[in-house]
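Researcher: Please predict.
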Amino acid sequence: MQKIVKNTGCPAPLGADREATDHRQAVRERDRTMKESMYGELTVIGMRGSEDFVQKVDNYLKDWRCHGAEETYLAHTNCPRFGSGEGKAMIQESMRGQDVYIYCDVFNYGVTYQMYGMTVPMSPDDHFADLKRIIAAIGGKARRITVIMPMLYEGRQHKRTTRESLDCAMMLQELTHMGIANLITFDAHDPRVANAIPLSGFDNVLPNYQMVKALVRNVPDIIIDKDHVVMISPDEGAMGRCIAYSNSLSVDIGMFYKRRDYSVIVNGKNPILEHKYLGQDLEGKDVIIVDDMISSGGSLLDVATQLKEVYKAKRVFNFATFGLFTDGFAAFDEAYERGIIDKIFTTNLVYRKPEIVDKPWYVEVNMAKYVAYLIDTLNHDATISDLLNPNKRIAAILEKHRASQGEQGQMSMDFNKADNK
């Protein structure tokens, strides 16, 4: 495919949604007034396992900038392995003067390589090593390098309690020393880890708007107000996320407190002994559990069980930016069959087993367009503040949702009156 080398404007295609059309018109307006200044020619690199996602991003960029199907913003790269497991990076075109965006899902265990005749799944360490190889292969020729790492490598090892390594801080410093200008991540476990690189760009992006949009589309009968919905934080660490949703949706919040056994360590963490709920009465209300990730899911299912069986919640939903499901889906299938969980919403920013899309309790939240917005805006050297603040967009979609519910309610009343005549 031919590499795109310039940006031009063209009419919007028929059937484009309003959001994409507005963005495309903004791009054309920049072109027409000659006030835009791209930081450099745009190049997007998708690391191994991210090919499908970055292809969707590329399609949006080509649509907005009106390029043909045979052209692409994607660079051709490869990270082959020797039989011993050692690797190298190869870039098949010049990066000189380019504004480079590298998308790297370090948690994609669906990618494998051969080592001493064995098929080995790539670990986060393997993905991070390949990322550094790609940056090294660029060789300082790019005008700017931005790394988009949706789930932060070693994000859960962000603080030191005893004699422990500070892996996340070390990773950030290593990348900045290699020459990256910005790092974009989503829903960092603790965004304060940005303190490790105070002189470099670090953007923590939240998928709140996309989650709310997916909720109203997949649960059209949900009434989002303080009398019908409560946001639930599964622990004290997720309260910030919960408060953000609470402010945007104008609903109340509740919290669970985790009591742990700090005398032992199981699978790298202190086991949870008990969850205690702090908050208002939940009987008959829809509740939404908010967290950054689902790992094994044990903690989520314990909280959901209490919400349903002890506190008599009407329905239980879950917003989790990253669905790892490290112990498989069996426990979630059982919880759905028992009526404990109604819907789980996770993004497509990281790898999930393909069979999850067929689960009746699962909803995938597509983030490709949002990532394309971020790349397009930054490439034009413009601020992304409006993209990082979803409150106006959430208010707009809630207004549309409530208007739709009002219309449906009026139609139902008219239908009942007609039946009674």
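Model: DSSP finds eleven helices and 18 strands in the chain.
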